[in-house]
Protein 1
Amino acid sequence: MFPDGAKIAVVSSWDGGTLADLEMAEVLDIYGWKGTFFLSPEQFGQEGCLSADQARALRERGHEIGARCLAPADPQTLTAEEWARQVAGSRERLEQILAAPVVSFAYPSPFDLDRLWLTEAVRAAGYLSARTTTPADLLASRIEDWMRLPVTAHALQDHMQLRERWDAIESSGEGIFYLWGRPDEILDDTDLRADLECNLSWFCGRLDVWYCTQGELAAHLLRRTAE
């Protein structure tokens, strides 16, 4: 199902766009994980936020840059036209900055899955996948709708909760372990950082696992579906 016969795909994604993203990338590198960092391009250069050069550096290290809205936005307050402009404009701006494709999107919170025009605007903008924060007890490799990609667990959940999700995937024979969170909520707290590193280390270095970005995951599985 996954490259090199792997049975499980491990993905992590990170919201915020702050300087803590750089530190999170360093932590992920230690344990062999990849991250998809979701950014709003209009935040570049603001106090405490990444610059365009730092976003490019993250990508050059093997991580993925995904898009949020052009600027932090609440979709509950936007018209359909403004939402579509935010979604498409963010991808266009990031691709200009990175000189590379941007194929992954993350919805802001709160996100109403019943408002179909939200997901259809993301689809129309050309993204391969869009992450929600909807938890899935078991995330299989056959995704029903890539514009409504669920997650497995939050980075602040305790180790036993993550183990339960992992064990469910292993028992099923194959699947996706998708961890998400905000670096600026974790790395400044000594205990939370220690817990995160403990979890990353426990799930790292496994021969039957493919450690990938959200974009790599979507591209691989969509290609297999088309074959």
Note: The CA atoms of residues 50 and 61 lie 15 Å apart.
Protein 2
Amino acid sequence: MAYENLIRLAEVMDRLRSPGGCPWDAEQTHESLLKYLLEESYEFIESIESGNRQDMQEELGDILLQVYFHARIAQEHQSHPFNLDDVAKSVADKLISRHPHVFSDVKVESTGDVLENWERIKKAEKGRTSAHDGVPTGQPALPLAAKLVYRAQKNQLSTPAHPNSETRERSNIDEEIVGSELLALVSWAVEHDIDPEVALRKAALKFRAEMSREEGNSNESR
């Protein structure tokens, strides 16, 4: 497999960022580029949903550009510089460490075992003491809430009670049913002049604090 165009992209990015290159590229910072990373990510998601392969290739390239751009900026940091090769090394080392069933002799029976190993190894590597450590609170409220509940489940902590609803008690729950329920709840919130994003974020952060209290009580009882 040839990677000449990956090298070419690094060379193009270096020229744009270097003296005599593009003044706009030279002015950019990690902070100024954040909005583009989000925009390109959403555009890539849209290309997947549309099934347009040409758009997928283009949008994935735009995301790759953001990685190269940030790595090129990082080279210039005075006290802690790193480059694209350092980034690639870090993620390759991480993948090897988090897949002991592939690169070592650990045995797994299911994808559930794979995820369990990933979370356990990640927690040990980062020295995390709480189930919610590492969950970015700046992300949108829905994925924030979903990640916190996932972490709580995996660590045998309490999770929010399911509403008493005939629909939610049915055994054949699927994406369409859940999506309709969520959309109806959003509609209800809007009708009552409540921002559903703000409301869910507050509830998620409250749940995060409850996770900490439960962990604290568990530690005290040991």
Note: The chain has a mean pLDDT of 90.
